[in-house]
Structure formats: C-alpha cells, structure tokens
Amino acid sequence: MEQRAQNRIHSAVPVQIRGVDAQGESFEEFTEAVEVSRRGLSLLTKRNLAEFAPLTVVLPGRGPSRPGEGPTDFFTEAAVVRVQKEGEFNRVSIRFVGATLSTYTAETV
After folding, report:
1. Beta bridge partners of 92
2. What whole-number distance in Å separates Cα of residue 9 and Cα of residue 41?
3. Does residue 10 surpass a pLDDT of 70?
4. Is residue 2 part of a domain?
5. Stretch (H or E) spanning 86
6. pTM of the prediction?
7. pLDDT tens figures, 21-31
8. pLDDT digits (tens, 9 = 90+) for 30-76
9. What is the predicted pLDDT for the residue at 2?
10. To which H or E segment does residue 82 belong?
C-alpha cells in the first residue's frame, strides 16, 4: 500500500495554473483542485501536460491574512509529478516547489 507524505483533502478548491503544455503552447487555465495537501494538489484538465513540467499555481484567498485586508492569494511555483488519463480528462498531480499551503498545516502523517 502506498504511504502518502501528507493527507489529502477532497474538495473543490478554485485554482489557476499557468505554464507550457506538452505541445509547447503557453496557457493559463482556471479550474478546481479535486485533492489538496500542504505540498500539492491534483486537478482534472483536458490540457496535455508533461511530467516534470514547471507550472505557476495560484489559489485565490488561500494565502496568509493581512490585517484589515483578509486572506491573500497563495502563489507558488510547482511541477507536474503525475499525469493519468481519466476519460476525456487528464488527472494531473502537482507538487509545490519550496512552498507549503498553511491552510492545511494541522494535518498529521
């Protein structure tokens, strides 16, 4: 049985990804994460992404809170770690590079 480093939370969290797809085309996509952990997420997309491709990930309103302003956006660089075909979609697993999502720090391994 595969042991995961972080617990995953199943939820529909809005996410924006930017990068270059497997065909070399730059893109920006607004979608929803289907699983989220402190160090990454997975999502469904019709876009063909290559493993290890770098991405920029933005989760609106999931960053640190600023006094008088509320939560900021969580913004980080990331990498595609797995791509699995699910019907007409690709389930893409993304690992954050150098950042963790503080919203989920209460998890235990």
Report:
1. 43, 83
2. 9
3. no
4. no
5. strand 74-86
6. 0.80
7. 999 999 999 99
8. 999 999 898 999 999 999 999 999 999 999 988 888 888 888 899 99
9. 47
10. strand 74-86
Residue 30 is assigned to a structural domain of this protein: yes
The CATH number of residue 100's host domain is 2.40.10.220
- Judge whether 1 lies within some domain: no
- The DSSP output letter for 23 is T
Distances (CA, A) of 20 to 8, 29, 49: 26, 11, 8
**pLDDT value of residue 11:** 66
3 state SS of 104 = helix
Domain membership of residue 93 as a residue range: 9-104
Question: Of 33, 45, 34, 41, nearest to 101 (Cα)?
Answer: 41
The number of domains in the chain is 1
Q: Please indicate, yes or no, if residue 33 is contained in any of the structural domains.
A: yes
Of 104, 102, 61, 96, nearest in space to 79 by CA:
96
Structure tokens at 44: 């469904």
DSSP at 108: -
Residues 96 and 78: beta-carbon distance below 8 Å: yes
